[in-house]
Design goal:
Length: 118
């Protein structure tokens, strides 16, 4: 199990990884839904090709931050090909929560610092 210091050593996340994790925070999604949501949430700054997205998902699977939900593929009997859904693991949730807390701290610091007058 990852400790808090282990998780903090992973941070900061890349923007792409952050957006993938945050897109999965409400619940499982298939790859195409992740791709669309990341583009929308990032105001178009991040647009994944399918190869790039699935490479990132494979890396997150290997790290244990997400899992593939194969039950969704079994339920999807009408689709011409099964869609695999991905969801956050407990580790992935902890990493995302730690990154959000880190970002909040940065924002609070930026708000509290008063710029010097020129």
């Amino acid at each position: 199990m990852e400790t808090e210091s282990d998780i903090k050593s992973i941070l900061p996340l890349t923007e792409a990884t952050f957006f993938i994790l945050i897109s999965l925070s409400p619940g499982p999604k298939h790859g195409y839904a992740i791709m669309k949501e990341v583009t929308k949430m990032s105001d178009g700054r991040i647009t994944f090709s399918t190869g790039t997205l699935y490479g990132a998902l494979k890396r997150l699977l290997d790290l244990g931050w997400i899992v593939r939900n194969d039950e969704a593929a079994e339920r999807d009997t009408e689709a011409s090909r099964s869609r695999k859904e991905y969801e956050l693991t407990s580790l992935g949730k902890n990493i995302l929560n730690s990154e959000v807390a880190r970002m909040k701290d940065l924002i609070q610091l930026a708000i509290s610092v008063k710029p010097r007058e020129a």
